[in-house]
Amino acid sequence: MTQDTPHSATELLRKLISFPSVSHQPNMPLIQWVEQYLKSFRAVTEVQAAAGDPTRANLIATFPDKHGGLQGGLVCSGHSDVVSAEGQPWRSPPYVMTERDGKLYGRGACDMKGYLAAVLSLAKEVSELSLERPFHIWLTYNEETDMQGIKELVASPTGRERLQGCLGCIIGEPTSMQIVYAHKGVYFHEYTSIGKGAHAALQTSGYNANQAAGEMLTHLFALQQDIATNGPFEEGYPVPHTTLCPSMVHGGVVYNSITDKCTIGFDIRNIPSDDPDRYYANLRTFVSAQNDRVVKASAPLEGCGTSLQRVEEVPAFGGRVDCALVRALQAASEEKDNLVKVNFCTEAGYVQQTGIDVVVCGPGDIAQAHQVDEFVTEEQLIKCCRVLLKTITLLCGGKSKSSI
């Protein structure tokens, strides 16, 4: 690191935005820069390259306690990847931070490099504290797609070892610094109906895949309505029950052909108290029986049938309100009425599965995430720095000299 190395949250955000760390593209330059930055403040670091791809990685960095211990303490975690800005009509270059009227614009400014910049800006001060417990900083990859980074990090030997005795983890998605203690899970599914293509005038020569797909859509919408009517319900969410949304239907290419394949993509977003697998079991039973009917009805044609698979999942998250982590954050923010639930998903469910307390709390408004001219306000960035530093001192010990 040189004398030109940025230290303020604003300048660190400028640096982080300059790395176009779009999901499924290399993030290693960003990870290596952050590692060197934190090592300059004597953090113990480990870069974990993605399985089978050395261009993407997680970073674990730890400020040891005053005895050199690396286990327990507090984790501040955030993802390093961003969604693409391609095709969006930005007023300024998306990977060059621009300041206008108290707002800091750039891809990832809100989701979630603003939080990362705030955390990194505290490195010097944290390194000078006499910590009773360690403080950890995590950066992950591919949160915006399959969340593979956090899955690998919490399963890694270092991740498991550092979490022993941990008081909690703050995941810094944009919440306007409100404390999110629960969110829904999301499970993506794909249904496939295979028929036999033929000219539309030759009905007996083919079997239309759209017929079974239509039955599946009817079943999905009926199940959706049943959930909305009968629950279960959980207060605190804008939509207080599990939802099911058939969102994509693809079948057929021209008017005068019998469709040989039709697919339906849909998601299930469950409240934490509702098991999404019971809906998956319902749908698998329906599709299995339907497949038997299609095979019989399409005979003597071969290869026709239906199938269902789950293609991706993000577990729901339901945290404890009465825990040291929440109490410290509320004391640091000097707010009591700031506990909320949200519909969007984060890495929190995977971290919670390790057995530690987790909250989601970070600067910026989720409405800005992924948008053209994405921004975070300087006010939110400053508040995040202040709240995090006080939370660190409350949970990890030491006395801060900061005037943030």
Automatic annotation (TrEMBL):
The keyword rRNA processing belongs to this UniProt entry's keyword annotation: no
Superkingdom of the organism of origin: Eukaryota
Residues covered by the Peptidase M20 dimerisation domain: 181-291
GO molecular function, one term: metal ion binding
Record-level GO BP terms: L-arginine biosynthetic process
EC number: 3.5.1.16
Assigned keywords, A-Z: Hydrolase, Metal-binding
One Pfam family in the UniProt entry: Peptidase_M20
InterPro entries linked to this entry: AcOrn-deacetyl (IPR010169), Bact_exopeptidase_dim_dom (IPR036264), Peptidase_M20 (IPR002933), Peptidase_M20_dimer (IPR011650), Peptidase_M20A (IPR050072)
Listed name of the protein: Acetylornithine deacetylase
Classification of source organism: Eukaryota, Discoba, Euglenozoa, Kinetoplastea, Metakinetoplastina
